[in-house]
From TrEMBL:
It comes from Paracoccus denitrificans (strain Pd 1222). It holds the Pfam family SBP_bac_11. The keyword Lipoprotein applies. Keywords: Lipoprotein, Plasmid, Signal. GO terms for cellular component: outer membrane-bounded periplasmic space. This is Putative regulatory lipoprotein.
Length: 395
């Protein structure tokens, strides 16, 4: 007599199981806000936790991806339907805006929410010399003691290269970068790889951005002079499905509550809101207070965006691909103490020569063939420099 009931129970259980399988196989709920960001969890989580307390109805999913890869995904069509892009490299937002990939929710295509600036860090205490300015990094005392990440993998490092180029100009900026190559211990694939290497003592100095180093115990950070403040940004994306939730989240990041979160010891960002900075000036990190009091200029994201591909690929062609050879040539040049000054100056000019003007770099196709051509030009220059060095090394 109980068999029909048992059958009905089994039917209900089977229906529930099938419904659960449908839910698991179905797309993520339309109420989910999706964010693609270059920031790690220690920056993102405090903001999400505070936002979640005020808006528990908005579910958020975050994908961490380096800036270069994130830009490529959005340019390719944003197939995964991200609603927000959140990163420190402002030129990335200009690139996406010019490609029509940003969604203006009523206040412009993107919003600046924090300031940052680049420099270098070291582990405390340090027995050896400490660089005071950018040129000090070229001192032979730091040979093979400096690390940086690759600008093709790190928006932070692309901003650092642009800081140098914008401050010094195209040719003088590249001359400094090419000489810095002789000082490098490694080019890391990740910004955090630089900081972790400094903490372990793998190298003495790491090139980085302020908030990454200031939030880590045991590291000292110094701003490059002049301090060039770089705006960090957040923007809504075309192809997102939650524009209202995206607008709510952006508004929260720009609110007094969101701006105060940036000052937490585990984040240490410079809020864009001048009232928050003034209100909490005493709680600002001393290095940040000092940076805001130095002479400083604004970073030009529009300029950086116009040569976005070119700067990264020139670094790959002229620095990364032949790093070991270029580094060795700098070492051998410095060892030629008794060589005629004119000959040493000639070799130095080759090692610091960027054979392309900005106009020439921007006038060629942005493809693999161009990269290979640039790499061959770099290698030819290095071979010429090596031949001159070898001749001077002969007894």
């Amino acid at each position: 007599m109980r068999r029909p009931n048992q059958t009905r129970v089994r039917t209900y259980r089977l229906a529930a199981l099938l419904w659960a399988m449908v839910l698991l196989a179905a797309p993520v709920s339309a109420e989910e806000l999706r964010i693609i960001t270059s920031y790690q969890a220690d920056v993102v989580d405090p903001m999400l936790e505070s936002f979640g307390r005020s808006r528990p109805d908005i579910r958020i999913r975050v994908l961490n991806k380096n800036t270069h890869a994130a830009v490529d995904e959005v340019l390719a069509g944003n197939d995964r339907g991200f609603d927000l892009f959140w990163a420190s490299a402002p030129e990335a937002f200009v690139v996406l805006d010019k490609a029509g990939r940003l969604a203006d929710l009523g206040d412009g295509p993107y919003a600046d929410f924090a300031w940052s600036a680049v420099g270098w860090t070291w582990r405390a205490p340090r027995d050896g010399p400490v660089p005071q300015d950018w040129n000090d990094l070229l001192d032979p005392a730091f040979t093979q003691g400096i690390a940086m990440s690759h600008p093709m993998r790190s928006g932070t490092m692309h901003s650092l290269l642009e800081t140098i180029l914008q401050d010094r100009g195209w040719q003088a900026g590249w001359a400094w970068i090419l000489e810095l190559a002789g000082q490098l211990n490694t080019i890391s694939a990740r910004s955090f790889g630089v900081l972790e290497g400094v903490e372990r003592g793998d190298f003495a100095i790491g090139l980085t951005i302020d908030f990454l180093a200031l939030a880590r115990d045991g590291l000292v950070f110094r701003y490059g002079r002049p301090v060039i403040l770089i705006p960090a940004r957040i923007a809504a994306l075309q192809g997102g499905t939650q524009p209202e939730a995206a607008k709510v989240f952006i508004d929260f990041v720009l609110s007094s509550e969101g701006q105060r979160i940036l000052l937490r010891p585990d984040i240490r960002r410079i809020p864009v809101d001048p009232e928050i900075r003034a209100e909490l000036s005493e709680s600002l990190d001393p290095a940040i207070r000092a940076a805001l009091n130095f002479s400083w200029s604004r970073y030009d994201p529009e300029l950086a965006a116009r040569r976005y591909w070119q700067v990264k690929q020139l670094f790959e062609a002229f620095v990364a691909r032949d790093l070991l050879l270029r580094r060795d040539l700098w070492r051998r040049l410095r060892a030629l103490d008794d060589a005629p000054p004119t000959e040493r100056a000639r070799i130095r000019r080759l090692l610091t020569w960027m054979p392309l003007t900005e106009h020439q770099a921007r006038s060629v196709p942005t493809d693999r063939e161009t990269l290979l051509e640039w790499s061959e030009r770099s290698h030819t220059i290095l071979r010429d420099a090596e031949a001159l060095i070898r001749a001077l090394e002969q007894p």
